[in-house]
Amino acid sequence: MCFKKCANTFLSREITPDEDVCINNCVQKYIYTNHKIMEIFMEVQPKMVHKRMEEINMAQTALEAQDQQIKVEQNLQ
């Protein structure tokens, strides 16, 4: 992405000062964006894990209740 935007000429092996500034600005933008995404992920991820744990606990409770019901029915026979 930054290469396409910032590489203006291929006449020299060296990076021009303008290309250098452009590349630094472009890369900084993507690094900043990545940090923001990670910041949000770190904020949301524990909530997602907590919600998933609650779902697992509810499913486990339902399975235990079902198992208990089967045992009661087997004892009645």
UniProtKB/TrEMBL annotation:
GO terms for biological process: protein transport. It is a peripheral membrane protein. Pfam families: zf-Tim10_DDP. The keyword Mitochondrion applies. Its main location: mitochondrion. The keyword Chaperone applies. InterPro entries: Mito_inner_translocase_sub (IPR050673), Tim10-like (IPR004217), Tim10-like_dom_sf (IPR035427). Heterohexamer. The twin CX3C motif contains 4 conserved Cys residues that form 2 disulfide bonds in the mitochondrial intermembrane space. Belongs to the small Tim family. PANTHER family: MITOCHONDRIAL IMPORT INNER MEMBRANE TRANSLOCASE SUBUNIT TIM9B. This is Mitochondrial import inner membrane translocase subunit.
